[in-house]
Design a protein that fits this description.
about 100 residues, alpha+beta, Alpha-Beta Plaits, 4-stranded antiparallel β-sheet
């Protein structure tokens, strides 16, 4: 079952957060993760949630996502991220869905 990691990041130290942005992708890839969205345009279309910088990752399953998050390679990056940003993160699973187009 595909696992998605959704991260809302409020950057508090933009200069040093750039290091986090540079170091994270290779570790995500090493653990089989793929970026679906990484800090692009975000618009609230319903409700009062106002994410600052939204990142969405996909992993083969929840265990692989948790292995990445708790990996020795990611530990120093996670520590730096904690000093440079406020992070809110959730993990959700989903069976692949086919949504037919309206064509």
């Amino acid at each position: 079952m595909t696992a998605y990691v959704i991260v809302d990041i409020e950057i508090t130290d933009p200069e040093n957060y750039e290091v986090v942005k540079k170091l994270t992708p290779p570790v995500v890839a090493k653990y089989g993760g793929e970026y679906l969205s990484r800090g692009g345009f975000t618009e609230v279309i319903e409700g009062d949630w106002c994410p600052k910088r939204l990142v969405i990752l996909a992993f083969e399953n929840s265990q692989k996502a948790k292995t990445w998050l708790n990996s020795p390679e990611f530990a120093p990056i996670k520590a730096l991220r904690a000093k440079t940003a406020i992070t809110r993160m959730v993990l959700t699973e989903s069976e692949p869905q086919f949504i037919p187009s309206n064509k």
